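Archive record:
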Amino acid sequence: MDALRSKKGFLCDMDGVIYHGNHLLQGVKEFVDWLYANDKKFLFLTNSSERSPRELSQKLARLGLDISEDHFYTSAMATASFLKSQKLAGSAYVIGEAGLINAIYDAGFSMNDINPDYVVVGETSSYSYDKIVRAVRLVLGGAKLIGTNPDLTGPGESGILPATKALVAPIELATGKQAYYIGKPNPLMMKHGVKRLGVSTEDAAIIGDRMDTDIIAGIETSVDTVLVLSGVTDREGIEMFPYRPMHILEGVFEIPD
């Protein structure tokens, strides 16, 4: 734990680490106070694409945390950055919420439901059969299929909820095309996150609740890994994977000394 506490920078997942829905998890305020008090650099690196950094900052403010927008990096932002690197001034058909749509607009893309370059899917509560049908037709027509993250499920106040990969699956099955997923554990998002932190990989740690995204992302980018059991993974679930996190904690409340 001393080695973990000596790290200069922390990449923190949000769902299952900081909150469940609109419920702040145990010891999070003390953890954030500890980050500030010890002059740690930190970035909330979330696979969720629903909200913009401003909305995430405001959400945490409602939960009692004062954290500025520059401390957030989302899979929507990583997806928009990837699309921009692939095609300038392209177009996309987007199944997702405002955070994803705005990020894609900011990258210089336009919305297009006729002949887009990409079909992009993120978390959304407005998923529908009509949107699946349109996405399938567009992908069969040549649009490239992109998922903001490969999470099958995510934690919510009412329990486990379907996430992006579960929403993309019907489109993949109907078209025979595999989506390219941008969020963790894709090294693209991790590299962007570490770069924004401004520390070396040796001086960074990633804190998450998922073995298949957060922990493998850290392992594959040589960043120390911390699994917290406050989200979707329990101790039995760890044994399903051929790799292990460096630290296993009940929650972030164990980190402040």
